[in-house]
Structures are given as C-alpha cells and as structure tokens.
Amino acid sequence: MNTQPRTQKGQATQAKLLQTALECFAAEGFRASSMRVIAARAGVSLSHAYYYFESKEEIVAQLLLNLRTEQFQRCIAHLDEGNTLESNIRVAYNAALEVMEPYHDFGPTFLKVLLSREALTAEISEIELSLWEKVVSGSRPLPPLGIRRDLPRFLWLLSGQVFSAWAYDNSKGRRRSRLLMKNTAPVVAKFAVLCRLPVVRSLFEDVLSLLDSSNDVHDEPASTAAKSATARAS
Question: How far, in Å, are 39, 61, 107, 161, 219 from residue 17 at the CA level?
C-alpha cells in the first residue's frame, strides 16, 4: 500500500477517492468500477489516483483497515475490566457488526483482499490481535495460565472464520452468522475454563494448530467452508 499522505490536502484527496469509489461500487458494482471512472468522478487525474491507490482492490483494502481500526476503538471503549470472557467476546463481535454491517456487500471482496495483500494483512492482523489481547487480559476471572498466552491468537483465528461466514451470509439480517457469533462466545468461555484440565488443554493446542493450518490455506474452497458454517448455525 502506498505511504499515507503527509499533508492535509493529500489526506483529503485520498478520502475523496475512497468515498467516490464506494459510491461507484454501490451504483455500478465492483467489477464495473474502473480506476479511470473513479478518478474522473472524484475530479482527479488517473495518475494522481494511482499515486494514492495502486488499484481498486487497494481502495477496498484501505476501507477494511479503517473499519478494523474503528472496531478496535469501539471495542476498547466498552471493554470494562471485570467482565467475563464471554461478555468481552460478545463486545468484540458486536463492535465488528456495528462497523462492518453497512459494508456487507463487500464481504467477499474483503476476503479476497486479505488473501492477496500481505502487507495490509499484517497491518490488520496486528490491530485484530491487539483487540483480542485486550479481550483476554480484561476478563475476570482470567483464563487458565496454561492457555492465557495463546488464547488471543486462538480468538483472532476463530474470528476470522466467523468473519468469513458473515461475508457469505445471505440470510435475512445476517441471522445465521449473528447466531454463530452469539453461540461462539459461551462455547469458547466454557472451553477456556475446562482448559484447566491437562487433557482439555491438549485439545486446545490441537484446535489452535488446526486454525493456524486453515489460516495458511489461500484458495477458493475457503468460501465454500464459510457458507457451510453459516448453514450449520441456522
């Protein structure tokens, strides 16, 4: 991704291109909206537009980064130390829904961007992992010591699967993926408590390994898995 504009004018131009692109995507669809059309409607030259965004996929990438940053800020504002782990997980998911729902149509494109732009993925991942670290550290009682270090990563990877389900959820009001989020929080909280037992802690490590492996798979069948997850939640 290009370096962020240093001047106020540059920031305003970048923001205008982003907003114009979203309007074009909404009116014409993502595929039909070219960088040339976006630049023309924003009132800037094509070369100027490419200075700020290398492609329309990068525009969507910037949008996703902005949304994840907003989600983090909203979540932190509502994470009261003393909440249970279940409550904090719900806060994180609710914050995600609040900021992401207006952009549900971009869901599959968001996933495509995350799989194709390594630099951005690292930046977004850092924000998301920090959020889940706050979720865990602010929970009371604290999760078992044996999984406390790895639990934020577990929750981050799990949230990626839930996000994939949301992205492909065509049920009314995203009922299926909302139900998935609602049911995930208590299950994970109970699982964390049971991890005080060595045999369950070993199972936690196995599940974390599976999630890590799934995160490394960058191919089309992932979308099929996401659709299946929403169907199972119904």
Answer: 7, 13, 20, 31, 30
The percentage of the chain sitting over the pLDDT mark of 70, rounded to a whole number, equals 86
Nearest to 24 by CA among 8, 35, 13: 35
Q: Find, among 229, 234, 226, 113, the residue nearest to 173 by Cα.
A: 234
Contact of 158 with 181, CB cutoff 8 Å: no
Residues 6+ apart with CB under 8 A from 162: 93, 177, 180, 181, 184, 229
Nearest to 89 by CA among 223, 192, 214: 192
Q: What are phi and psi of 141, to 5 degrees?
A: -70, 160
100 contacts 50 by C-beta, under 8 angstroms: no
CA atoms lying within 13 Å on the CB side of residue 76 = 13
Environment class of 36 (CB within 10 Å of its CB; exposed 0-12, middle 13-18, buried 19+): exposed
Pair 79, 58: CB distance under 8 Å: no
Task: Report the interhelical angle of 56-78 vs 107-116 (nearest 10°).
Answer: 100
CB atoms within 10 A of CB 208: 17
What's at 169, amino acid-wise?
D
- For residue 131, give the nearest of 79, 206, 63, 209 by alpha carbon: 79
The whole model's pTM is what? 0.81
Tens-digit pLDDT profile for residues 37-69: 999 999 999 999 999 998 888 888 888 888 899
Residue 27 or 168, more confident: 168
